[in-house]
Amino acid sequence: MEKVTSKQMNLIDSFCIKAIGIPGIVLMENAALKVIKNIDLNSYNNFTIVAGVGNNGGDGLAIGRHLSVLGKNVNVFVIGNVRHGSKDFVTNYSILRNMNIHIHHILEREDLKHLQKSVRSSEMVIDAIFGTGLSRNIEGLFERTISIINKSDNFILSVDIPSGLSSDTGEILNTCIKADKTVTFQLLKKGLVENSGEKYAGEIVVEPIGMPKIAIEKGLRNF
């Protein structure tokens, strides 16, 4: 199976959106539905979703919407400055607000108490904090948030890549989600199978999200 770097994946994503005309929100919706497909909905009813404010976080919010529509109990947490959110993150954030789904914000250490309580009452935690573009060490509230998730006994599912894992090298950027399962999109990310990748990713599932062959070939050829 073809393994890609974060830059290659960005090129493919950009070609899909800008050259072919597939809206990013469509790819995000496809990604969310593929994550839902990989959840045993007969076994899990209570979920905590922790989302960043980038496109990975947007995936997480879309997943939360679908779980809520399916009648599941979902607590959604957003960590990061929403005003700096990506366009498609903001779209899904607005949809949840319009559905009157309460969103908890992690802005200071006191907010972590609400996260701890939610994690204790959940059966699955969905990690959608950082995606493949992460290149800096994780510190502060983000580090504490990941620590709370990792200390839980819940099943942990990571969206695209465990938060804190380098998509290119599989190195740990100070700390990292230790997932039971990672649903990654369209192509296998190099970091998932190199260095610490497999140890932190758990079961790896690669799901197509509607990216055409021409976009994939273009992205791989031009790198």
UniProtKB/TrEMBL annotation:
<dbReference type="GO" id="GO:0000166">
    <property type="term" value="F:nucleotide binding"/>
</dbReference>
<keyword id="KW-0413">Isomerase</keyword>
<keyword id="KW-0630">Potassium</keyword>
<feature type="binding site">
    <location>
        <position position="56"/>
    </location>
    <ligand>
        <name>K(+)</name>
    </ligand>
</feature>
<dbReference type="Pfam" id="PF03853">
    <property type="entry name" value="YjeF_N"/>
</dbReference>
<feature type="binding site">
    <location>
        <begin position="131"/>
        <end position="137"/>
    </location>
    <ligand>
        <name>(6S)-NADPHX</name>
    </ligand>
</feature>
<comment type="function">
    <text>Catalyzes the epimerization of the S- and R-forms of NAD(P)HX, a damaged form of NAD(P)H that is a result of enzymatic or heat-dependent hydration. This is a prerequisite for the S-specific NAD(P)H-hydrate dehydratase to allow the repair of both epimers of NAD(P)HX.</text>
</comment>
<feature type="binding site">
    <location>
        <position position="160"/>
    </location>
    <ligand>
        <name>(6S)-NADPHX</name>
    </ligand>
</feature>
<keyword id="KW-0520">NAD</keyword>
<dbReference type="GO" id="GO:0046872">
    <property type="term" value="F:metal ion binding"/>
</dbReference>
<dbReference type="GO" id="GO:0052856">
    <property type="term" value="F:NAD(P)HX epimerase activity"/>
</dbReference>
<dbReference type="InterPro" id="IPR004443">
    <property type="entry name" value="YjeF_N_dom"/>
</dbReference>
<feature type="binding site">
    <location>
        <begin position="55"/>
        <end position="59"/>
    </location>
    <ligand>
        <name>(6S)-NADPHX</name>
    </ligand>
</feature>
<keyword id="KW-0547">Nucleotide-binding</keyword>
<comment type="similarity">
    <text>Belongs to the NnrE/AIBP family.</text>
</comment>
<feature type="domain" description="YjeF N-terminal">
    <location>
        <begin position="9"/>
        <end position="217"/>
    </location>
</feature>
<dbReference type="InterPro" id="IPR032976">
    <property type="entry name" value="YJEFN_prot_NAXE-like"/>
</dbReference>
<feature type="binding site">
    <location>
        <position position="127"/>
    </location>
    <ligand>
        <name>K(+)</name>
    </ligand>
</feature>
<dbReference type="InterPro" id="IPR036652">
    <property type="entry name" value="YjeF_N_dom_sf"/>
</dbReference>
<keyword id="KW-0479">Metal-binding</keyword>
<feature type="binding site">
    <location>
        <position position="163"/>
    </location>
    <ligand>
        <name>K(+)</name>
    </ligand>
</feature>
<keyword id="KW-0521">NADP</keyword>
<protein>
    <recommendedName>
        <fullName>NAD(P)H-hydrate epimerase</fullName>
        <ecNumber>5.1.99.6</ecNumber>
    </recommendedName>
</protein>
